[in-house]
Specification:
Strand content: 5-15%
Bound molecules: zinc ion
Largest sheet: 2 strands, antiparallel
Oligomer: single chain
Number of strands: 2
Shape: globular
Number of helices: 5
Radius of gyration: 16 Å
Structural class: mainly alpha
Helix content: 55-70%
Strand order of the largest sheet: 1-2
Length: about 140
């Protein structure tokens, strides 16, 4: 196998593992909330796991359990007060209900900027997957 083929193979394996981690992270966030929206408390048919620090901001917090909040569609993307609506309504509601988590978010957000990009190995990703599975098991 050429070095280019090896890089390609590793990239594929990382991508596959990332997909598995996305699903595991989502499951952990939903199970922890018992499927209920953190803002309005309803239990929707399809709970939406939301990243406090957006996925587009890098991988460092993408699969961190504390970075996840279970929301209904309205509070995730579907309404004026949604997390992704871009206004202050969600941030204010979240801050009021979960001051400690809001503080965690602010700190993690600063750390994310300071620490910059993160390129985890397959082994690191597998460790994260195991930790998330343990969280799911503990909460189920
Ligand atoms: Zn809601």
């Amino acid at each position: 196998m050429t070095p280019a083929q090896k890089r390609q193979k590793r990239k594929k394996a990382l991508s596959r593992k990332g997909g598995i981690l996305d699903k595991t992270w989502s499951r952990a966030v939903i199970v922890a909330a018992d499927g209920c929206c953190a803002i309005c408390g309803i239990r929707p048919d399809r709970p939406n796991p939301h990243h406090l620090i957006r996925k587009s901001r890098g991988k460092r917090f993408r699969w961190v359990f504390d970075n996840g909040v279970c929301l209904c569609f309205t509070h995730h993307t579907g309404g004026a007060e949604a997390a992704h609506a871009g206004g202050l309504a969600f941030a204010e509601a979240f801050q009021e209900k979960y001051p400690e988590r809001a503080a965690w978010y602010s700190q993690a957000n600063r750390d994310n900027k300071v620490l910059g990009p993160w390129k985890p190995s397959l082994e690191e990703l597998e460790e994260i997957r195991k930790e998330l599975e343990e969280i799911i098991e503990d909460l189920s």
